[in-house]
């Protein structure tokens, strides 16, 4: 069996096109300290089968800089997060080129599914990655980044900025600081 390359090859344009509407399994298990919830997978992630896989997505560097991981993980190492008490899920499972392709019905249904997932696994914290998605699917329309008043069962909720490279008004340092605030309270 050949060694796995350090950096997987990027998907081709045909592979990206074929990834539309695919899903990626959650990285989830019992006894999580934090369950990170993205909006939905992008085509690059669906083509590779790894969350936050598109180059330029700042999730993995921010997770490390915020203190959650001992080094910066690659997307293909996502299952190693479970050993650290960290998981990943999404509001909506189907992949799209952009999150604005999702309907409000999909976001509302995704919010209900996310609550069921949280009630089943009972992580210490649910970290929602995206203010707009949270407001549309679950939260009050004036929700802001940080700890939320609402919680699901015993799971507390923290709202984080979306780490997508498209969310450029949040600098890498500011993202890391915000992730670090959650890390400080979540252990």
TrEMBL record:
It holds the Pfam family UDG. InterPro entries: MUG/TDG, Uracil-DNA_glycosylase-like, Uracil-DNA_glycosylase-like_sf. One of its GO terms (biological process) is base-excision repair, AP site formation. SUPFAM superfamilies: Uracil-DNA glycosylase-like. SMART domains: UDG (SM00986), UreE_C (SM00987). GO terms for molecular function: pyrimidine-specific mismatch base pair DNA N-glycosylase activity; uracil DNA N-glycosylase activity. This is TDG/mug DNA glycosylase family protein. It comes from Prauserella marina. The lineage of its organism: Bacteria, Bacillati, Actinomycetota, Actinomycetes, Pseudonocardiales.
């Amino acid at each position: 069996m050949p060694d796995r390359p350090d950096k997987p090859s990027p998907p081709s344009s045909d592979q990206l096109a074929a990834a539309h509407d695919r899903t990626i399994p959650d990285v989830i298990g019992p006894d999580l300290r934090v369950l990170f919830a993205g909006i939905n997978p992008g085509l690059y992630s669906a083509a590779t089968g790894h969350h936050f896989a598109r180059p330029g997505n700042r999730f993995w560097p921010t997770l490390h800089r915020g203190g959650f991981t001992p080094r910066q993980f690659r997307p293909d190492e996502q299952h190693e997060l479970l050993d650290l008490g960290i998981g990943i899920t999404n509001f909506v499972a189907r992949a799209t080129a952009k999150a604005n392709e999702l309907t409000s019905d999909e976001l509302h249904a995704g919010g209900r599914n996310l609550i069921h997932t949280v009630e089943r696994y009972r992580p210490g914290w649910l970290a929602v990655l995206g203010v707009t998605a949270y407001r549309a699917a679950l939260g009050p329309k004036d929700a802001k980044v940080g700890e939320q008043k609402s919680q699901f069962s015993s799971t507390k909720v923290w709202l984080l900025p979306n780490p997508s490279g498209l969310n450029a008004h949040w600098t890498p340092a500011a993202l890391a600081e915000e992730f670090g605030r959650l890390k400080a309270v979540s252990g």
